[in-house]
Design goal:
CATH architecture of the largest domain: 3-Layer(aba) Sandwich
CATH superfamily of the largest domain: P-loop containing nucleotide triphosphate hydrolases
Radius of gyration: 25 Å
Mean pLDDT: 91
Distance between the termini: 59 Å
Number of strands: 25
Strand order of the largest sheet: 13-12-14-15-25-24-23-20-21
Largest sheet: 9 strands, mixed
Helix content: 25-40%
Number of domains: 2
Number of helices: 19
């Protein structure tokens, strides 16, 4: 059976939650025993978000096959069982790059290359090839209707309905219905204008999802219905909720999934939502609470740590614990003496140092790591966090006072973290080389790599197995020239690349929980299947908080 396609667009403003809406709908369809695929089409010209600042576009999510993608793919994987890959995220840059490569090869037989049909045909080909052999494919169009960048994508999905038949395509438009407090009214005009813009390019939405801070009364839905040429029963409230994991239940109560399967002429039984109900119960009514300090430099924009934040919540779910996140600016820590630092970090049950790039705030992170190590506060370092744990240990425990990463001090006499010049791709098919002058885009160690764990370690006890595979996104590595010196001083290497001697996990003994990993475990954590390292970190932090309490 060929898949049915659902296209999700957004209007009025950005950040309305198209990605969450698509993810939640995917979860509801899976709860009806349908198989799904999900794809994100981004209108920006970058080839991928890999070189973009987190302040620009939030975190960069990484798939098993090493694609650097939009953060919405993280939502897709957390909410569903969809298997995502490089084909799950296309940007305008990727589309144009592919079309121009074909033109250079002569594929268009000397013809004039145009947006229509060449760009739109390429977009449609990517849609067909990107979602797999599934019952329903959800395709989210990034940006906002009316943006000049998104016009080719909207034209492509307009054509798609006629290419594969109207019975196989559904358009869902997410818009905003604001409540004007001074007037005491919900306003439908932004939705009317957004739908008008969408219809002007030939797309009539089948379903309108209205983001609002309160339920929409029937008269408001009827008004939207009248002005947007859509039945009232196809207008749904996408109401604000306390936790993103309530969204599937909220949309189901509105009847969204019932309407979707009706319009697509798919017969299914009622959805089984027990797991989602249990997750929400644990989030809303936990037995305990723990405070985790995230020491980073992107703390002004929490979207920079989206997968990380959610993985900590998942670890809390597994421990029936509410996880309270405290974002700690590492640049501020640099200005503090030991007494001020201790006062600032008082009340923190566990410290997490996440990944990142650049030398801003690095010494503040090292200060926090030293505090956690010496004061026996559970510590979890991820990617750059792990590398700085090695730097801190080298300086303060191994006698290498000027130790550093070559990324931050190329002249350091003790480059305990260095730029690896050559490695094998995640699938073992090619050798990748680089130096300090190599272009940044797509040149890191990316995607899933195997790791072998040492018995009697925090990592082994968490995973319960000696062989794992985790996703990477980094350029610098542990320098094995200093491995003997560091391990002789008490640093334990408890995880190494299964095929090479690359250090993946470091720990120390005689500590409640001290673990740094080179990979990004947050990328594979789900609310119904929390990542074991986050489960154990939250458990250790909870025990530490109870001891101090």
């Amino acid at each position: 059976m060929k898949p049915k396609f659902i296209f999700v667009t957004g209007g009025v403003i950005s950040s309305l939650g198209k990605g969450l809406a698509a993810s939640a709908l995917g979860a509801l369809l899976e709860a009806r025993n349908l198989t799904i695929g999900i794809q994100k089409l981004d209108p920006y010209l970058n080839v991928d978000p890999g070189t973009m600042s987190p302040f620009q576009h939030g975190e960069v999510f990484v798939t098993d096959d090493g694609a650097e993608t939009d953060l919405d793919l993280g939502h897709y994987e957390r909410f569903t069982n969809a298997v995502l890959s490089k084909k799950s995220n296309y940007t305008t840059g990727k589309i144009y790059d592919a079309v121009l490569a074909k033109e250079r090869r002569g594929d268009y037989l000397g013809g004039t290359v145009q947006v229509i049909p060449h760009i739109t045909d390429e977009i449609k080909a990517c849609i067909r090839g990107g979602t797999g052999n599934v019952d329903v494919a959800l395709v989210e169009i990034g940006g906002t209707v009316g943006d000049i960048e998104s016009q080719p994508f909207l034209e492509a999905i307009r054509q798609f309905r006629y290419d594969i038949g109207p019975e196989n395509v559904l358009y869902i438009h997410l818009t905003l219905v604001p409540y004007i407090k001074t007037a005491g009214e919900l306003k439908t005009k932004p939705t009317q204008h957004s739908v008008k813009e969408l219809r002007s390019i030939g797309i009539q939405p089948d379903i309108i999802l209205c983001r609002s801070d309160r339920p929409l009364p029937l008269e408001i839905k009827k008004k939207i219905s009248l002005f947007c040429n859509i039945p009232p029963e196809a207008v749904f409230t996408a109401q604000d909720v306390d936790s993103i994991y309530e969204v599937p239940l909220s949309l189901h109560r509105e009847g969204l999934d019932d309407k979707v399967v009706e319009l697509l002429n798919i017969w299914t039984g009622a959805p089984r939502l027990d797991t989602w109900q249990q997750i929400v119960r644990k989030i809303k009514d936990p037995e305990s609470e723990v405070t985790i300090g995230i020491v980073g430099k992107y703390t002004a924009l929490t979207e920079s740590y989206k997968s990380l934040n959610e993985a900590l919540v998942h670890g809390g779910i597994a421990n029936n614990t509410r996880v309270k996140l405290e974002y700690i600016d590492s640049e501020q820590l640099e200005k503090m003496d030991e007494e001020q630092l201790a006062a600032h970090l008082a009340g923190i049950d566990g410290i997490l140092v996440p990944g990142g790039f650049g030398n801003r705030g690095i010494e503040g992170k090292i200060k926090a790591i030293a505090y956690a190590r010496s004061q026996r506060v559970p510590l979890f370092g991820i990617c750059l966090g792990m590398q700085l744990m090695v730097v801190e240990f080298a300086r303060h425990c191994a006698g290498l006072e000027r130790a550093n990463s070559a990324e931050f001090d190329p002249e350091t006499p003790y480059p305990v973290i260095y730029l690896m010049k050559e490695w094998t791709s995640h699938d073992g098919t090619r050798t990748i080389t680089q130096d300090e002058n190599t272009p940044k885009g797509g040149t890191m160690r990316l995607g899933a790599h195997p790791c072998r764990l040492q018995p009697d370690s925090f990592a082994y006890r968490a995973y319960g197995t000696g062989e794992i595979s985790e996703r990477h996104r980094h350029r610098y590595e542990f320098n094995n020239q200093f491995r003997d010196r560091l391990t002789a001083s008490g640093l334990q290497v408890t995880g190494t690349h299964a095929d090479r001697q690359l250090v993946e996990i470091v720990e120390i003994k005689d500590h409640p929980w001290y673990l740094g990993c080179q990979f990004h475990p947050e990328f594979t954590s789900k609310p119904m299947k929390p990542h074991p390292l986050f489960v154990e970190f939250i458990k250790a932090s909870l025990a530490h908080g109870r001891r101090d309490g």
